[in-house]
Input
Amino acid sequence: MHHIAIFASGTGSNARKIIEYFQDSPVVQVALVVSNKKDAGVLDIAKAHGIPVYVIGRQSFYETEDLLAVLQQHRVEFIALAGFLWLIPAYLVRAYPRRMVNIHPALLPKYGGKGMYGMHVHEAVRAADEPETGITIHYVNEHYDEGDIVFQARCPVAPHDTPADIARNVLTLEHLYYPQIIAQIL
Ligand code: GRF
Output
C-alpha cells in the first residue's frame, strides 16, 4: 500500500477528488492531510473520511524539520500539493525527490511563479487573450512552479470567457486528471 499525503490550504476541491478517487483503493491510501490553515475546508473533508490531519505553522514549517517526523509516522512516501501556497523548503524537497507533485492552473512555464495563483492566473490569461489554457502537474523543487512537468491538459479560451469561466473550465480538468496522474506516477 502506498501512503500519500495531501497538502492543501484552500477549499480543497482537488483534495476531495483525490480522497474520493482512492477511498477504496487497495494500492493507494491517503494517510494524512496537511494544512497551514486550521479552518481550511479540506480539514473537514479529511475528517469526514477518517483521514488524520496535521495543521502546521509557518515557524515550524520553515525553521524546524518536525514535519518530516510526522510524515514518517504516517509512512508517507508521496506528497500531492493541492492548493498549498507556501514555498516548499529544501529539507522537504530533499526528503521527497520526485515524490512530490503540484498542480498549477495554467500551462507552465506560462503564468507561473510567485503571486501567480488563484484568479490572478486566469485574469492574466484573459488579459493576454490566450486562445487556450489548461493545467500542469509537475514535480516540486525549491522554486515556485519550476519542477519537471509530468502532465498537461488544455482547454480553449473563448473570446467571451470571463476569468471566472476560465477558472471553472480549468478546475474541471484538475478534478478529472489529478487523481489519475497521481495513480499513474505511483
Ligand atoms: C487549484 O486551482 C490548483 O491548481 C491550485 O490551487 C487551486 C486549489 O483549489 N494550485 P482547491 O482548493 O483544490 O479547490
Notes: Helices lie at 13-22, 41-48, 58-63, 66-73, 90-95, 119-127, 163-185. The beta strands are 2-7, 28-35, 53-55, 78-81, 100-104, 132-139, 149-156. Residues 8, 10-15, 82-83, 103-105, 171, 174 surround 5-O-phosphono-beta-D-ribofuranosylamine (CB under 6 Å). The first strand starts at residue 2 and ends at 7.
